[in-house]
Design a protein that fits this description.
about 40% helix; five-stranded parallel sheet; Rossmann fold; 2 domains; 11 helices; about 20% strand; single chain; six-stranded mixed sheet
Length: about 300
Amino acid sequence: MQYLEKPLSQLLNVARSRPQRRLVVAAAEDKSVLQAVWEARNEKIVAPVLVGDSAKIREILRQLGGNADDWEIIHEPDASAAASRSVGLIREGKGEILMKGYLPTAVLLKAVLHKENGIRESSMLSHVTLFEIPSYQKLLGLSDAAISIQPTVEEKAEIIRNAVKVFHRLGVEKPLVAVLCPVETVNPKIESTVHAAMLAVMQVRKQIPGCIIDGPLAMDNAISAEAARHKHIESPVAGNADILIAPDLDAANILYKSLIFFAGAVSAAIITGARVPVVLTSRADSERSKLLSIALAAALE
């Protein structure tokens, strides 16, 4: 496969074609999360294990019109303990996807990254989002809009590797990666442009395999072939990117929310770099986005 075709909802079909995955939800007493988990269960994408305050979980399931006795619920009312218990289930092979419920992100990630009892696999975790944007010709990836605050060039290389692995596991053999900067030329006074050029050379030297990287690229040159032609940029990536790599968390998060609220994008997001995909959604995300994020995690080969 050369790229990920629209629509994003195709992830549901892909996930259905895979063996049903066990989804562990940490601190599952969150109505919007349970609504998405409910739908994913009905789609036969996942078999959920709900860890958290059992009384609150059972009440939410009742409100949703279900029978709590039909669900696997593990009572652990303390958020930190629920995170540790959920990660423990993953370590024991009793879960294949981890999802954040009603607890702080830092609490869940602390359990994931615990030196003795965590499930980190890569040298770092990173957040990967897939967008379906009405004006773009295919699904578009973005990283990292949630975890890496001010990544070094080495950390950006790992962010790219993690994102590329997601695309590989969805069937894209050689994704096109655009390293975003405010300009498309190297300027020693703008560190992000230096990083971008280094990352492009690292790909050529096979330090970041399985993709094609170009940078520095401004946003317009990364996604608009016309803009790239106007600037006389000749590159297989320019105007046709599969993955956008932002210079820092500020830029990535602003771009993430701009695509959703201004461009009408639909999104699905996971954290990669752990032993299993981690579904970590925002309270501002729609229930549809949460469902598609579960589907993305379940669709990975």
